[in-house]
Write a structure and sequence with these properties.
single chain, 404 residues, alpha+beta, 5-stranded mixed beta sheet, 5-stranded antiparallel beta sheet
């Protein structure tokens, strides 16, 4: 059966939600993200793009390029709520879909042409989402995920585009190689140094040449440039790791503050593990100094999700990484090698009182929020927390760097 893949993307999602909440922001240049000079633009309105502003840009630079722009910090909970509204509509109407990010979806409509035209069905779905949520949304429809995603980008803003079977290569050929998914800034510069600008040139190259230049990724990019992609729509996203990090508004050497933040992050991530019935066997600490040099250290440990085991090991790794002669710009923690399971009691060290305490604190956090119960040493980092269970199958919420 011939595949038919739909890609849906909410246009400037964070901006659209803010405008939905405040109509005075309509048609005004708008930036959503970290509001300090070290913040990052999470989303920008189309009005700002003529000034050269784009998402991922430092907020300080964006404000210099577009001084009249309104800057809003944004709220992850609000965006999640509106994203869930869209998800519920898609879930109700589409037999198989994948939520690849907070504002991006794939749906497999294969076989529906026999009963109801896929393009008509997708159009009606798009119009229903816009009508019921008030959010603009675009879609691309083709035989695979890659071409559909590129088609959505070409359809924007608030429009739709179908690429018929057999027309994938002609559609991609005149586009910039930057529009191929997986081609980031570094890869783009490498290809530009080879004199490649358009997808058509990549299509005309032999695959082995791309492999020699970019290794294994060269083959993937070549196939995508030729409209070849067999990636299935995956309805559930299994997390392979969980992490947290903080960039400071002002570089610091306050060791008490740094330790408190690390303890708060470890405590919160350990709770997320227990909430998702997960265990970690590999923990890592990252430090970025004021000179932007970044160092990290990881450690393999027996599978666990207990604070009293994780916190001392995190602080031990931090102690080996920390250089007192330099100011710290960022700290982060990552738990990986995750497996399903519950914490196993240590026969010689754990007590029934300690395990009951974990259970009681977790119940309070489930009921009143992640930040309702924290260690005294982590009181100074109460902003660290999550709005949702990271193991619910939903993709992580990507916002601008939050500050401590």
């Amino acid at each position: 059966m011939q595949k038919t893949i739909l890609h849906l993307d909410l246009d400037t999602f964070f901006v659209s939600v803010e405008r939905l909440l405040n109509s005075e922001l309509q048609n005004r240049p708008l930036l959503v993200g970290g509001t300090s000079d070290r913040g990052v633009v999470a989303a920008c309105s189309y009005e700002t793009r003529g000034f050269g502003v784009h998402s991922g840009m430092p907020m300080k630079m964006a404000k210099e390029l577009c001084p009249e722009a309104v800057v809003i910090r944004g709220n992850a909970g609000t965006y999640s709520k509106h994203s869930d509204m869209v998800t519920d509509i898609i879930k109700e109407q589409v037999p198989l879909f994948e939520k690849s990010s907070i504002d991006e979806f794939y749906a497999d409509l294969s076989g529906m042409d026999r009963f109801f035209g896929c393009y008509q069905y997708a159009s009606e779905l798009r119009h229903r989402i816009s009508k019921e949520t008030g959010l603009p949304i675009s879609f691309g429809l083709s035989a695979n995920k890659v071409v559909s995603k590129v088609a959505t980008g070409e359809a924007k803003p608030n429009n739709q585009l179908k690429i018929d079977l057999g027309y994938e290569k002609p559609f991609l050929a005149p586009l910039s190689i930057k529009k191929i998914p997986m081609v980031g800034d570094k890869t783009y510069q490498t290809l530009r140094n080879l004199g490649l600008r358009k997808v058509k040139t990549v299509q005309e190259m032999p695959m082995d040449l791309m492999q020699r230049v970019l290794g294994k990724n060269g083959e993937v990019i070549w196939k995508r440039a030729n409209g070849v992609d067999h990636t299935p729509v995956i309805p559930f996203c299994e997390r392979k790791s969980i992490s947290n990090e903080r960039t400071f508004d002002k570089d610091t050497i306050d060791v008490v503050k740094l330790r408190g933040i690390l303890i708060a992050m470890t405590e919160n991530l350990a709770f997320q593990l227990r909430r998702g019935e997960k265990l970690t066997a590999c923990i890592a600490v990252k430090i970025r100094y004021s000179d932007f040099n970044t160092y990290s250290k990881q450690m393999r440990i027996p599978y666990t999700s207990a604070d009293h085991i994780l916190i001392p090991k995190i602080l031990e790794m931090f102690k080996t990484l920390y250089n007192r002669r330099l100011l710290v710009r960022l700290v982060g923690i990552r738990f990986s090698h995750l497996v399903s399971g519950n914490y196993q009691i240590n026969l010689f060290e754990d007590t029934e009182e300690a395990l009951n305490l974990y259970a009681a604190m977790d119940r309070m956090r489930e009921r009143y929020g992640d930040k309702s119960v924290v260690r005294a040493s982590a009181m100074g980092a109460r902003t660290i927390g999550r709005m949702h269970n990271p193991f619910n199958g939903q993709p992580p919420i990507v916002l601008a760097h939050r500050k401590q």
